[in-house]
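User: If you would, consider this record:
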Amino acid sequence: MKGVNFVDLRDAGDPVELAAAYAEKGADELVFLDISATEEKRKTLAKLVLDVAEQLNIPFTVGGGISSVEDVDILLKNGADKVSINSSAVKNPDLINQLSDKFGSQCVVVAIDAKNIDGKWTVHLVGGKVPTELDLFEWAKEVEERGAGEILFTSMDHDGTKNGFANEALARLSSELNIPIIASGGAGNIEHFTDTFKKGKADAALAASVFHFKEIEISELKDQLRIAGIPVRIT
């Protein structure tokens, strides 16, 4: 599914078929987020994860509805390489420690969805539907201290707008933390990717609609990033 500002979702295709296509086209990693799992109080679809993993030869991150060590164990056994937790991490921060201790920090991605409200980046939960009192930067620091290996930051203001990533916030996260920061929300053209690596200091960039609807080809994107002096893996 793909939407704008976390709403107005539309069908973007079959996840198994898309996964196979992206692996073939040179994507470095695939992120599967079951965005309604928490709201609908269900677990991520383990069988679907298995079906996707069978199509891949690249790292595979899975998120949505994960709330325990047991949930992660099932997903890893079904082919996931990493898990992404969001709402469950805020509700039970010690879960980050538990997962890091059990599976290693390289397995634990904490996703943070945040919206800029009156100049403050406020963390939101349940697919962006529930605001909290948490500050993006303070929460990100705690997440790192608890053992997360990466942070996936999605700007709700930029999500689906195709106006570029939240580079100012990304640059601050990058300067204040020592773990990789994945930029998400706002990709609309190749220049946006270049900007988020150069201006936002992001370690990786995630996008959906520009790839789902074939507005940007991965091979062309990587060629342009390389020309801009940004290290990329060329297959």
